Amino acid sequence: MSTSVTTPAATAADSGHAKGAPRLRRVKAHRPGKPRRSKLMTALMALMVLYTVVPLLWLVVNATKTQQGLGDSNGLWFADDFALWDNIRDTFTYHDGVFTRWLLNTLLYVVAGAGGATLLAVLGGYALAKFDFPGKRGVFATVIGAVAVPGTALAVPTFLMFSKMGLTDTPWAVIIPSLVSPFGLYLMWVFATEAIPAELLEAARMDGASEFRTFFQVALPLLAPGIVTVLLFTTVATWNNYFLPLIMLKDPDWYPLTLGLSAWNSQAETVGGEVVFNLVITGSLLTIVPLIAAFLLLQKYWQSGLAAGSVKE
Question: Can you give the residue range of the structural domain that contains 190?
Protein backbone atom coordinates (compact mmCIF):
# COMPACT_ATOMS: atom_id res chain seq x y z
CA MET A 1 0.00 0.00 0.00
CA SER A 2 1.07 3.58 -0.47
CA THR A 3 -0.04 6.97 0.88
CA SER A 4 -0.20 10.37 -0.76
CA VAL A 5 1.66 13.34 0.69
CA THR A 6 0.35 16.81 -0.16
CA THR A 7 1.69 20.25 0.67
CA PRO A 8 -0.39 23.09 2.25
CA ALA A 9 -0.01 25.12 -0.93
CA ALA A 10 -1.39 22.29 -2.97
CA THR A 11 -4.33 21.95 -0.59
CA ALA A 12 -5.08 25.64 -0.89
CA ALA A 13 -5.01 25.35 -4.65
CA ASP A 14 -7.62 22.62 -4.49
CA SER A 15 -9.94 24.67 -2.26
CA GLY A 16 -9.70 27.72 -4.46
CA HIS A 17 -8.35 29.98 -1.66
CA ALA A 18 -4.89 30.37 -3.20
CA LYS A 19 -5.03 31.43 -6.81
CA GLY A 20 -1.93 30.81 -8.79
CA ALA A 21 -0.64 28.32 -6.26
CA PRO A 22 1.30 25.33 -7.59
CA ARG A 23 -0.76 22.48 -8.90
CA LEU A 24 -1.42 19.56 -6.64
CA ARG A 25 1.50 17.23 -6.57
CA ARG A 26 1.15 13.87 -5.00
CA VAL A 27 4.21 12.10 -3.74
CA LYS A 28 3.94 8.39 -3.10
CA ALA A 29 5.64 7.29 0.07
CA HIS A 30 6.18 3.60 0.70
CA ARG A 31 5.61 2.35 4.18
CA PRO A 32 8.90 1.58 5.91
CA GLY A 33 9.76 -2.07 6.20
CA LYS A 34 7.62 -3.27 3.30
CA PRO A 35 9.69 -4.83 0.52
CA ARG A 36 9.12 -3.74 -3.03
CA ARG A 37 7.84 -6.37 -5.41
CA SER A 38 9.74 -7.16 -8.57
CA LYS A 39 8.06 -9.11 -11.34
CA LEU A 40 11.42 -10.19 -12.71
CA MET A 41 12.61 -11.57 -9.37
CA THR A 42 9.27 -13.27 -8.82
CA ALA A 43 9.55 -14.98 -12.20
CA LEU A 44 13.12 -16.07 -11.50
CA MET A 45 12.13 -17.49 -8.11
CA ALA A 46 9.24 -19.35 -9.74
CA LEU A 47 11.67 -20.92 -12.22
CA MET A 48 14.00 -21.91 -9.38
CA VAL A 49 11.11 -23.51 -7.49
CA LEU A 50 10.12 -25.49 -10.59
CA TYR A 51 13.73 -26.53 -11.16
CA THR A 52 13.88 -27.83 -7.58
CA VAL A 53 10.42 -29.34 -7.18
CA VAL A 54 9.89 -31.04 -10.57
CA PRO A 55 12.72 -33.61 -10.17
CA LEU A 56 11.49 -34.43 -6.66
CA LEU A 57 7.94 -34.78 -7.96
CA TRP A 58 9.17 -37.05 -10.75
CA LEU A 59 10.98 -39.21 -8.19
CA VAL A 60 7.95 -39.53 -5.91
CA VAL A 61 5.57 -40.29 -8.77
CA ASN A 62 7.75 -42.91 -10.45
CA ALA A 63 8.57 -44.65 -7.17
CA THR A 64 4.93 -45.78 -7.17
CA LYS A 65 5.24 -47.64 -10.51
CA THR A 66 6.29 -51.12 -11.46
CA GLN A 67 9.06 -51.78 -13.94
CA GLN A 68 6.50 -52.13 -16.74
CA GLY A 69 4.57 -49.08 -15.57
CA LEU A 70 7.65 -46.88 -15.95
CA GLY A 71 7.57 -47.33 -19.71
CA ASP A 72 3.81 -47.35 -20.20
CA SER A 73 2.86 -44.15 -18.36
CA ASN A 74 3.60 -40.45 -18.27
CA GLY A 75 6.71 -39.61 -16.26
CA LEU A 76 4.98 -36.84 -14.31
CA TRP A 77 1.80 -38.71 -13.44
CA PHE A 78 0.81 -41.90 -11.67
CA ALA A 79 0.21 -45.21 -13.41
CA ASP A 80 -2.84 -47.42 -12.98
CA ASP A 81 -1.05 -49.70 -10.52
CA PHE A 82 0.17 -48.21 -7.23
CA ALA A 83 3.25 -50.23 -6.26
CA LEU A 84 5.08 -47.99 -3.80
CA TRP A 85 4.92 -50.37 -0.84
CA ASP A 86 5.87 -53.34 -3.02
CA ASN A 87 8.83 -51.40 -4.41
CA ILE A 88 10.00 -50.48 -0.91
CA ARG A 89 9.77 -54.10 0.19
CA ASP A 90 11.59 -55.34 -2.90
CA THR A 91 14.30 -52.68 -2.48
CA PHE A 92 15.16 -53.94 0.99
CA THR A 93 14.99 -57.63 0.01
CA TYR A 94 16.68 -57.55 -3.41
CA HIS A 95 20.04 -59.38 -3.54
CA ASP A 96 19.65 -60.70 0.00
CA GLY A 97 18.96 -57.26 1.46
CA VAL A 98 22.18 -55.60 0.30
CA PHE A 99 20.40 -52.21 0.30
CA THR A 100 20.31 -52.34 4.12
CA ARG A 101 24.05 -52.99 4.17
CA TRP A 102 24.65 -49.99 1.90
CA LEU A 103 22.45 -47.85 4.15
CA LEU A 104 24.45 -48.87 7.23
CA ASN A 105 27.70 -48.18 5.38
CA THR A 106 26.47 -44.70 4.49
CA LEU A 107 25.52 -44.05 8.11
CA LEU A 108 28.99 -45.18 9.18
CA TYR A 109 30.67 -42.82 6.73
CA VAL A 110 28.43 -39.94 7.81
CA VAL A 111 28.86 -40.46 11.56
CA ALA A 112 32.62 -40.99 11.40
CA GLY A 113 33.46 -38.75 8.44
CA ALA A 114 30.99 -35.88 8.69
CA GLY A 115 30.97 -35.97 12.49
CA GLY A 116 34.76 -35.93 12.63
CA ALA A 117 34.96 -33.16 10.04
CA THR A 118 32.55 -31.04 12.09
CA LEU A 119 34.54 -31.61 15.27
CA LEU A 120 37.81 -30.64 13.61
CA ALA A 121 36.18 -27.60 11.99
CA VAL A 122 34.82 -26.40 15.35
CA LEU A 123 38.14 -26.80 17.15
CA GLY A 124 40.17 -25.28 14.32
CA GLY A 125 37.73 -22.44 13.64
CA TYR A 126 37.61 -21.44 17.31
CA ALA A 127 41.40 -21.49 17.62
CA LEU A 128 41.90 -19.43 14.46
CA ALA A 129 39.26 -16.91 15.52
CA LYS A 130 40.27 -16.35 19.13
CA PHE A 131 44.03 -17.00 19.32
CA ASP A 132 46.96 -15.20 17.73
CA PHE A 133 50.00 -17.22 16.70
CA PRO A 134 52.83 -16.98 14.16
CA GLY A 135 51.80 -18.03 10.67
CA LYS A 136 48.11 -17.26 11.10
CA ARG A 137 47.99 -15.39 7.79
CA GLY A 138 49.56 -18.36 6.05
CA VAL A 139 46.95 -20.67 7.55
CA PHE A 140 44.20 -18.34 6.35
CA ALA A 141 45.62 -18.34 2.81
CA THR A 142 45.90 -22.14 2.89
CA VAL A 143 42.30 -22.58 4.00
CA ILE A 144 41.00 -20.20 1.32
CA GLY A 145 43.07 -22.00 -1.31
CA ALA A 146 41.79 -25.39 -0.15
CA VAL A 147 38.19 -24.18 -0.46
CA ALA A 148 38.82 -23.30 -4.10
CA VAL A 149 40.21 -26.76 -4.95
CA PRO A 150 37.46 -29.26 -5.97
CA GLY A 151 37.47 -32.61 -4.25
CA THR A 152 37.61 -34.51 -7.54
CA ALA A 153 41.00 -32.95 -8.29
CA LEU A 154 42.42 -34.60 -5.14
CA ALA A 155 40.74 -37.98 -5.62
CA VAL A 156 43.45 -39.57 -7.78
CA PRO A 157 46.42 -38.39 -5.63
CA THR A 158 44.53 -39.57 -2.55
CA PHE A 159 43.96 -42.96 -4.16
CA LEU A 160 47.65 -43.36 -5.00
CA MET A 161 48.65 -42.43 -1.45
CA PHE A 162 46.09 -44.74 0.16
CA SER A 163 47.06 -47.53 -2.22
CA LYS A 164 50.65 -47.43 -0.99
CA MET A 165 49.38 -47.41 2.60
CA GLY A 166 47.14 -50.44 1.96
CA LEU A 167 43.93 -48.62 2.90
CA THR A 168 42.04 -48.93 -0.37
CA ASP A 169 38.92 -51.10 -0.42
CA THR A 170 38.41 -50.39 3.29
CA PRO A 171 36.05 -47.97 5.07
CA TRP A 172 39.06 -45.85 6.06
CA ALA A 173 39.56 -44.89 2.42
CA VAL A 174 36.22 -43.03 2.56
CA ILE A 175 36.26 -41.85 6.19
CA ILE A 176 39.72 -40.26 6.37
CA PRO A 177 39.33 -37.93 3.33
CA SER A 178 35.88 -36.95 4.61
CA LEU A 179 37.45 -35.60 7.81
CA VAL A 180 38.92 -32.68 5.88
CA SER A 181 36.40 -29.89 5.25
CA PRO A 182 38.09 -26.57 4.35
CA PHE A 183 34.74 -24.88 3.82
CA GLY A 184 33.51 -26.06 7.21
CA LEU A 185 36.68 -24.79 8.85
CA TYR A 186 36.33 -21.40 7.17
CA LEU A 187 32.64 -21.18 8.11
CA MET A 188 33.36 -21.94 11.77
CA TRP A 189 36.24 -19.46 11.73
CA VAL A 190 33.95 -16.67 10.54
CA PHE A 191 31.10 -17.70 12.84
CA ALA A 192 33.29 -17.91 15.94
CA THR A 193 34.73 -14.48 15.22
CA GLU A 194 31.24 -12.91 15.24
CA ALA A 195 29.41 -15.08 17.77
CA ILE A 196 31.84 -15.10 20.70
CA PRO A 197 32.66 -11.72 22.26
CA ALA A 198 36.28 -11.41 23.32
CA GLU A 199 35.15 -9.74 26.56
CA LEU A 200 33.21 -12.86 27.52
CA LEU A 201 36.30 -15.03 27.16
CA GLU A 202 38.41 -12.57 29.13
CA ALA A 203 35.83 -12.55 31.93
CA ALA A 204 35.90 -16.35 32.11
CA ARG A 205 39.70 -16.38 32.24
CA MET A 206 39.76 -13.72 34.95
CA ASP A 207 37.44 -15.93 37.01
CA GLY A 208 40.05 -18.67 36.85
CA ALA A 209 38.52 -20.88 34.16
CA SER A 210 40.96 -22.94 32.12
CA GLU A 211 41.01 -22.80 28.32
CA PHE A 212 39.21 -26.13 28.07
CA ARG A 213 36.51 -25.05 30.50
CA THR A 214 36.15 -21.71 28.75
CA PHE A 215 35.69 -23.47 25.42
CA PHE A 216 33.23 -26.14 26.55
CA GLN A 217 31.13 -24.08 28.97
CA VAL A 218 31.29 -20.58 27.49
CA ALA A 219 32.13 -20.76 23.78
CA LEU A 220 30.56 -24.05 22.72
CA PRO A 221 26.93 -23.12 23.54
CA LEU A 222 27.33 -19.92 21.50
CA LEU A 223 28.67 -21.95 18.56
CA ALA A 224 25.64 -24.27 18.38
CA PRO A 225 24.04 -22.66 15.26
CA GLY A 226 27.35 -22.74 13.40
CA ILE A 227 28.02 -26.32 14.45
CA VAL A 228 24.64 -27.47 13.13
CA THR A 229 25.20 -25.61 9.87
CA VAL A 230 28.61 -27.18 9.30
CA LEU A 231 27.26 -30.59 10.32
CA LEU A 232 24.50 -30.36 7.72
CA PHE A 233 26.92 -29.32 4.97
CA THR A 234 29.38 -32.12 5.75
CA THR A 235 26.57 -34.65 6.15
CA VAL A 236 25.13 -33.83 2.72
CA ALA A 237 28.61 -33.93 1.14
CA THR A 238 29.41 -37.32 2.69
CA TRP A 239 25.94 -38.79 2.10
CA ASN A 240 26.03 -37.86 -1.61
CA ASN A 241 29.70 -38.71 -2.09
CA TYR A 242 30.09 -40.82 -5.23
CA PHE A 243 33.42 -40.31 -6.95
CA LEU A 244 35.65 -41.03 -3.95
CA PRO A 245 34.00 -44.39 -3.09
CA LEU A 246 33.98 -45.24 -6.80
CA ILE A 247 37.78 -45.19 -7.06
CA MET A 248 38.49 -46.42 -3.52
CA LEU A 249 36.13 -49.39 -3.12
CA LYS A 250 35.83 -52.65 -5.05
CA ASP A 251 33.96 -54.79 -2.53
CA PRO A 252 30.18 -54.21 -2.90
CA ASP A 253 29.78 -54.93 0.81
CA TRP A 254 31.43 -51.56 1.56
CA TYR A 255 29.51 -49.54 -1.02
CA PRO A 256 27.54 -46.49 0.12
CA LEU A 257 24.02 -45.93 -1.19
CA THR A 258 25.15 -43.77 -4.10
CA LEU A 259 27.53 -46.37 -5.46
CA GLY A 260 25.18 -49.27 -4.77
CA LEU A 261 22.26 -47.70 -6.62
CA SER A 262 24.57 -46.88 -9.51
CA ALA A 263 25.56 -50.56 -9.67
CA TRP A 264 21.89 -51.57 -9.83
CA ASN A 265 21.29 -49.05 -12.57
CA SER A 266 24.23 -50.42 -14.59
CA GLN A 267 22.81 -53.93 -14.57
CA ALA A 268 20.63 -53.04 -17.55
CA GLU A 269 23.76 -52.45 -19.66
CA THR A 270 25.25 -55.90 -19.01
CA VAL A 271 24.43 -59.07 -20.91
CA GLY A 272 21.80 -61.00 -19.00
CA GLY A 273 21.58 -58.29 -16.35
CA GLU A 274 18.29 -57.76 -14.56
CA VAL A 275 16.57 -54.43 -15.20
CA VAL A 276 15.45 -52.95 -11.87
CA PHE A 277 14.89 -49.28 -12.64
CA ASN A 278 11.87 -49.26 -10.33
CA LEU A 279 14.08 -50.32 -7.42
CA VAL A 280 16.72 -47.75 -8.34
CA ILE A 281 14.12 -44.97 -8.28
CA THR A 282 12.58 -46.21 -5.03
CA GLY A 283 16.02 -46.53 -3.45
CA SER A 284 16.85 -42.99 -4.54
CA LEU A 285 13.68 -41.73 -2.87
CA LEU A 286 14.54 -43.58 0.33
CA THR A 287 18.05 -42.13 0.18
CA ILE A 288 16.94 -38.49 0.25
CA VAL A 289 14.33 -38.91 3.00
CA PRO A 290 16.89 -38.74 5.88
CA LEU A 291 18.45 -35.58 4.43
CA ILE A 292 15.08 -33.86 4.09
CA ALA A 293 14.18 -34.85 7.65
CA ALA A 294 17.50 -33.52 8.98
CA PHE A 295 17.04 -30.14 7.28
CA LEU A 296 13.46 -29.80 8.49
CA LEU A 297 14.28 -30.75 12.09
CA LEU A 298 17.37 -28.54 12.32
CA GLN A 299 16.28 -25.59 10.18
CA LYS A 300 15.97 -23.30 13.23
CA TYR A 301 19.68 -23.74 13.95
CA TRP A 302 21.19 -23.74 10.48
CA GLN A 303 19.18 -20.72 9.31
CA SER A 304 20.45 -18.64 12.23
CA GLY A 305 23.94 -19.97 11.53
CA LEU A 306 23.85 -18.82 7.92
CA ALA A 307 22.65 -15.36 8.98
CA ALA A 308 25.40 -14.87 11.55
CA GLY A 309 27.67 -11.95 10.74
CA SER A 310 25.41 -10.62 7.99
CA VAL A 311 24.64 -7.43 9.92
CA LYS A 312 27.43 -5.27 11.30
CA GLU A 313 26.53 -3.36 14.43
Answer: 93-307
